[in-house]
Design a protein that fits this description.
Elements: H1 2-16, H2 66-80, H3 84-87, E1 89-90, E2 104-105, H4 112-140, H5 149-153
Antiparallel strand pairs: 1-2
Bound molecules: heme C (2 copies).
């Protein structure tokens, strides 16, 4: 029972971030362009210098595979438009940009952004369990999709809270046929 729950949860997790849809089967040929935070070398993925054992998972399943964890973390980063260093800490005080992942202390909770992200994770799971799955899906059917980090963040640290102001009125378009000479 517990096991089953953990399994269902970790499957759901990959979906949670909303940004991993393209990732599960990394194609050997195409290095994904741009946005992965510097961990790619010559198109070879998965060479992240991160520990194999995780010691401070409080929400993610403790037996999550390294692949799934990495996917989830990439999803966090992509969804919020950040890199690993935004939520984690480096033991190298000179590496402010967080370029050397081998110097990170990923288990540390010293970075408040990590604690916020953990709360966000719980919030997102609760929205999906208590609202989308329990109340909305019975009414909407399969159109009711789970919320992900991306649903709100759309690649930004701060979700937009208000509709964009209406666009300024377009400048008057010049009359197409040049106005005939008056008189
Ligand atoms: C938006 C915040 C955020 C970003 C960005 C982020 N992480 Fe995380 N990371 C977390 C949170 C939150 C946890 C703890 C989850 C939990 O408690 O279950 C975590 C946990 C981890 C752990 C497990 C540490 C342990 O031993 O418990 C590793 C490893 C990790 N992240 C690696 C990465 C890598 C690599 C990146 C960049 C690709 C990254 N993270 C980007 C928020 C983030
Ligand atoms: C229901 C909408 C919603 C969802 C889903 C959501 N967030 Fe957020 N997030 C917010 C809001 C609202 C704030 C705080 C206000 C703001 O940033 O403008 C916030 C703030 C944050 C911050 C703090 C940013 C900062 O500058 O300190 C992080 C980190 C974050 N979210 C990560 C995540 C992650 C990771 C997920 C997915 C597990 C997630 N969020 C899912 C709405 C959401």
């Amino acid at each position: 029972m517990r096991k089953f729950h953990a399994l269902a949860l970790s499957a759901a997790l990959v979906l949670l971030t909303g940004a991993v849809a393209q990732e599960p089967t990394p194609s050997p040929q195409t290095p994904a362009a741009g946005q992965s935070s510097g961990q790619q070398q010559g198109g070879v993925r998965r060479a992240l210098p991160i520990p194999d054992k995780f010691t401070n998972l409080q929400v993610l399943p403790k037996d999550i595979s390294k692949d799934q964890l990495v996917q989830t973390m990439r999803g966090f980063a992509t969804s919020t438009g950040t890199r690993c260093i935004f939520c984690h800490v480096s033991k190298d005080p000179n590496d402010k940009e967080g370029n050397d992942l081998s110097k990170f202390d990923f288990a540390s909770d010293a970075n408040d952004h990590k604690k916020i992200a953990r709360a966000m994770l719980i919030m997102t799971q609760n929205i999906n369990k208590e609202f989308i799955q329990a109340q909305i899906k019975p009414l909407m059917g399969d159109e009711a999709e789970n919320v992900t980090c991306f649903t709100c963040h759309q690649g930004k640290k701060h979700p937009q809270h208000k509709a964009a102001p209406p666009a300024p009125p377009a400048p008057p378009t010049p009359a197409t046929p040049p106005a005939e000479k008056k008189q």
